[in-house]
Amino acid sequence: MTKYLIKWQKNESLMPADPAMMAKLQLSLLEVARANLKSGKMIDWGSYCDASGGYCIVETNESELFDQILKWYPYISFDAKPVLSVDQVIGAIDKAMIESKPK
Fold first, then answer.
1. Which residues 6+ apart lie within 8 Å of 57 measured at CB?
2. What domains, with CATH codes, occur in the chain?
3. How far is 47 from 87, CA to CA, in rounded Å?
4. For a disulfide at 54, which of 42, 47, 81, 95, Cβ 3.0-4.6 Å?
5. pTM for the complete prediction?
6. How many alpha carbons fall within 13 Å on the CB side of residue 3?
């Protein structure tokens, strides 16, 4: 499976103006995040201190990632990037160096 770094941001235009309603919506979204962490669907989750957004790390495939993102849409927007481990990067560099040697 692929590991993804996902940066997320609240869609402020869809947040309720009423503070109580906004808190209720945000708490319901946070409960989804908590459940995903508990079940292992998310490896890590964090919020920026300015409350504008945050990040999460998941290990999944593209289809499952899309399914997960749909649970938050349209209140949250996402920028998901697949990431490599240090060992994967070293392996790729080693492979490139071997392939670039003259034959």
1. 3, 4, 5, 6, 42, 43, 44, 45
2. 2-100 (3.30.70.1060)
3. 28
4. 47
5. 0.83
6. 10
